[in-house]
Predict the structure of Alpha/beta hydrolase.
Amino acid sequence: MTDVDQDYSAQATVTEAEFDAVMARYRSASEAAIAGLDGHPDLAFDPLSDERLDVWGIAPGELRPVVIAVHGGYWRMLSRHDTAFMARTLADAGIATVVPDYTLSPAASLEEIVRQVRAAVAWVHRHGTEHGLDPDRIHVVGSSAGGHLTAMTAVGGWQHAAGLPENVVKGAMTISGLFDLRPLVDTFANAWLNLDTPRAEALSPLLAPPGTAPLHVAVAEHEAAGFHRQSTEFHAHWPAERSWTLVPGRNHFDVFLDLADPRSALGEALLRLVRP
């Protein structure tokens, strides 16, 4: 493995057994969290791809603030069914959760994946009131590849073309994300991303016009060096209100699960972001 591969190999920071156990926890914790929650599962949000999302934690007669939770998986694995483990914690705080799918790489280009996640934001803004969601209180959170995609909804420059207000995202939390994709051109990940340098530049939130929403950047303590470095750079780059958490004792994969615990540093930070 080359040095640059090592920098961006999240899976190399855990054993195979640890990785498999966390992947299983994503699904089991999500299933437990949504059991009995009011919601609207399996809604089509993007006619160009026919991808779907689930809405959880709504309440009759309310328009609740929204957290759109974007899954990771290096843009090539996992789904919305693995990503609802925070839904009950948020519902208990009066917050709804939206978990979208996106077409996985290499079946979709990274440009298309970004478009789909932005389309989920647009769907909540345009159709949220029909499903108990407040279109003026949209927040986005994501881990790993989902951290990159979250950042791509928070940066400026895309909203006008989508017919959305510039401040459509009211807050964003990235967890162990990637924000400058140029190094990935020379890594193992390009086997499925198929990026060249100009496309990597265009898809890098660190190189995009920053947005105006409050940003919380988090990174796990036991993390590959590239994720640490890029999280630090993205936090420093953001001109609007920003905050930071280094999550002790966590690795690239289990850190995301902390959002299910309202007493964890990440759980508390997300609640503060949505309900300051």
About this structure: The chain has one domain: 3-274. Strands lie at 39-46, 51-56, 64-70, 96-100, 133-143, 169-175, 215-222, 242-251. The chain is about 35% helix and 20% strand.
